[in-house]
Write a structure and sequence with these properties.
This protein has eleven helices and 16 strands. By secondary structure, it is an alpha/beta fold. Bound molecules: 5-S-methyl-1-O-phosphono-5-thio-D-ribulose (MRU). 5-S-methyl-1-O-phosphono-5-thio-D-ribulose (MRU) is lined by residues 44-47, 90, 155, 157, 161-162, 167, 194, 233-235, 245-246, 311.
């Protein structure tokens, strides 16, 4: 299941705001519209946002490649800034745009048409590497899952959140493909309902047993011994192992700790912010409170009531049993073992 792919000169995106009831694919060639699709969460999930932004930079270059070099370079700064300004928390966005900007810088002696061709190659490489990383992570993570485990996940860290296969759900898929008779509990993940709309959709479609619960049921499921481990994705991991992920992940981590259940995070190294020392510095996106006050256009809260809508929270590293990356499984002490990944 590929939520984003390049085809016939356009970036195709499966509209995730319409799932699970409508499967609509949009075509993009304008970097401004690609940026807007990230803001509107037509595409979402940290790695998928990174891949999308990489293609956004490429389409920006396509637009300006016939301009004089000076205009091209100036315009590319604007393209990169527009994409960087879409969503603040997932570091993959900045990682991908920086990588594309690095190609422009490293080839400043070439003409804009040549640079544009190189940007297409780089975006394709970022996309292909993302799938490869998910599959490798899946294999590492599957080794942590026992034959009949029931796994709780939060939000959607699946194929829909990546170029394909998924991070947390990549672990689930790899365990399933290895013949383990696993099953999944999916938190619905208020307010955007990524668990209900996306995780339940993609696992159900693949025939992997999934049971949907509301967020406030997770603790009770754990208390009854129905959950063997938690596997979630991440939007940004600090050097000390603090993990920003979808709002509600922090609460799940506390519940898992209280019940002695392993809490695993699956994320590629592109989700690690090696320049950030702790999760305290992670910028948390605040989204429109209409996501809370309305469901599918239907008002569910009184007019004028105060609301807050942080889209992410930070799980302290003390609650994280291990971090599954494409370079292997990382255990505490994270402040030593995460920086070591940079050299490996
Ligand atoms: O707001 P979203 O839907 O972009 O948030 C997504 C998440 O929090 C995911 O769990 C995270 O990006 C990991 S995706 C592989």
């Amino acid at each position: 299941m590929k939520p984003i792919y390049y085809e016939d000169g356009a970036l195709k995106m499966l509209d995730q705001t319409l799932l699970p009831t409508q499967e609509v694919i949009h075509s993009y060639t304008d970097y401004r519209e690609i940026a807007q699709a990230i803001v509107a969460m037509i595409v979402r999930g940290a790695p998928a946002i990174g891949v999308t932004a990489a293609y956004g930079v490429y389409f920006g270059a396509e637009e300006f490649k016939n301009q004089p070099a000076e205009t091209f370079f100036k315009s590319m700064d604007t393209v990169c800034e527009t994409l960087r300004a879409t969503r603040p928390t997932a570091v993959n966005l900045f990682w991908a745009v920086d990588r594309m900007a690095g190609v422009i810088r490293a080839n400043a002696d070439k003409n804009p048409i040549q640079i544009t061709a190189l940007l297409k190659q780089e975006a394709d490489a970022i996309c292909a590497e993302d799938i490869e990383m998910c599959r490798t992570m899946g294999a590492y993570g599957a080794a942590l899952i026992h034959k009949k485990d029931t796994i709780l996940t939060h939000c959607n860290a699946g194929a829909l959140a990546t170029a394909d296969y998924g991070t947390a759900l990549g672990v689930v898929r790899a365990a399933w493909e290895a013949g383990k008779e696993i099953s999944v509990y999916a938190d619905e993940t208020r307010p955007f309902l990524q668990g209900a709309r996306l995780t339940a959709y993609e696992l159900h479609k693949d025939g992997i047993p999934v049971t949907l619960i509301t967020d406030n049921m997770a603790g009770w499921m754990m208390k009854q011994g129905k959950i063997d481990c938690v596997v979630v994705g991440a939007d940004r991991i600090a050097r000390n192992g603090d993990v920003a992920n979808k709002i509600g992940t922090y609460s799940v981590s506390i519940l898992a700790k209280a019940h002695g259940i392993p809490f695993y995070v699956a994320a590629p190294t592109s989700t690690i912010d090696f320049d950030m020392w702790s999760g305290d510095d992670i910028v948390i996106e605040e989204r429109d409170c209409r996501e809370i006050s309305h469901i599918k256009g239907q008002q569910i809260a009184p007019d004028g009531v105060a609301m807050e809508n942080p889209a992410f929270d930070v799980t302290p590293h003390q609650n994280v049993t291990a971090i599954i990356t494409e370079k292997g499984v990382v255990y505490p002490p994270y402040d030593i073992n995460i920086p070591a990944l940079q050299e490996s």
